Amino acid sequence: MLALPADIPLVQSHEIDDLIATRTTARGMVIAASRDGGTNALLTWPPLALPFLFGVGSQARHLAAAHERGLTVREFRATGMELDVDRPDDLLLLAETDGETETQRLVRELCVAERVMCV
Fold it and tell me: N or C end: fewer C-beta atoms under 10 angstroms in the chain?
């Protein structure tokens, strides 16, 4: 089972493909952390091999749960999976990051950076 939160606007399809390709044949988990220690992608097999523990500091909780269950653990890193939008400063970073995704175009069109700076 692959869980991808909806708030990772820079993720690219090839990064998802690469994450899935790291899966092994043993029971396990592949995790992609956010830049603040959360979880921005979680692949588990079998599908319900461990509970979802999303939220602040979830990477550490997912890793601990996987180790408790004897799962093979792989940590995965992809630039597009590191930024999630949890706080206003994340929108500012999204607007300032190089790229032209649909979400980046929208936050720029809405002048989100200027609005965040005024708060």
Answer: C
